[in-house]
Amino acid sequence: MEHLIQAAYFITALLFILGLKRMSSPLTARSGIKWAGVAMAIAVVFTMFWPGLHNIGLMLTAIFLGSIVAWVSGRKVEMTNMPQMVAIYNGMGGGAAAGIAAVELMRGEIGSTGLQVLTVVGGLIGAVAFSGSMMAFAKLQGWVSGRPINFPAQQTLNIVVFIVALLLGVTLFDSDVGLVLIVLFFVVALAYGILMTLPIGGADMPVVISLFNALTGMAVAFEGFTLGNAAMIVAGTVVGAAGTLLTQLMAKAMNRPLSNVLFSSFGKEVAAEQGEVSGSLKSIEPEDAAIMMAYTSKVIIVTGYGMAVAQAQHKIRELMDLLIERGIEVKFAIHPVAGRMPGHMNVLLAEAGVPYEVLFDLEEINAEFSSCGVALVIGANDVVNPAARSDKSSPIYGMPILNVDQAENVLVIKRGKGVGFAGIENELFYKDNTRMLYGDAQDMVNELVQSSKQL
To answer: 250 and 291: one domain?
Structure first.
């Protein structure tokens, strides 16, 4: 039977890898998710036949209840709330890995020193990923301020807490350690995850979610070694590697090292440090904006978190269809860190039925803005701010941005005159070729749609 289980784990690993490969393309992502789901089902079913397995009834009950919660929440959650869902589900994976470590440490039967180290490290990483993801969820959900939360000597405290967690972890290498030290180790690790996430603002949340995803994968892989479970080792390694690569790509897209994301407050109020912004904000009526788009040859639409909040993606799809009917070329420009999780804008636009073929990332679309008649910016702020290229005093200086300012005309839909998560004024809004449409994104796009229909 054990050989049959190992064979099932091999098939599981193969399906995980193939599923992840298919998830790399929007056209095959749905089938990739199904392949990975089948792989997980195979692993769970065959694990139930593991020799000497106990508490099967309790495990089946937990799987049943968890499946119901996942099914109901998956069906009901709005696409705009997907970042929160990703954060909390990812955190559960880290928490599960930490739970495995806790149980194995309390049993005291791990064996070799190497496995003892892997168990402790996996428990530490899993606990940090769990509590950090829960804090990220609270920030995204609005239960805690999305702005960075800072206090005196914060980084010093974080370092001290982390060192204490490491020292406690070292004491756990002894298999005869008491329950008190085990509990204290996990309490300190959980505290560090919270403290680590508190100073991180909404603008950095895509990177943080990706990082915790990588940590969860690593924790699962380490605990897989502890249990001798090949499926956990492969699945955790794949998730950890993918999350690490994605985290690096996201940090690169912001032109910031990961250490700067974790230990610097990108979202704090820094407007006072910014150079003077010359010019004035110039508004435009929806009717005039619709005319401007109707009589050009190319429109590039740039979406941001404001579109997600207003749930304007369906109206944007309707506007796109009207422009295409008039023979206008329409493309979407997606910045890697737009939204609150990797691919957030892509998911929302796909939900509205926007074809994948018209979605372009920063490197693919940037050269086209100079030949674009109208660039329509909906809810984006810092990712289109020219200060990233010109103002060395700006906190976003050096960050790759979408070259929206190079378009012949720029229309910006914005709820109000507030600044973005970086806390700085956007030079784009003061450019001579920029016009502002103030209001809720969905309502404003709807007015553009109605005005376009009357032309």
So the answer is: no
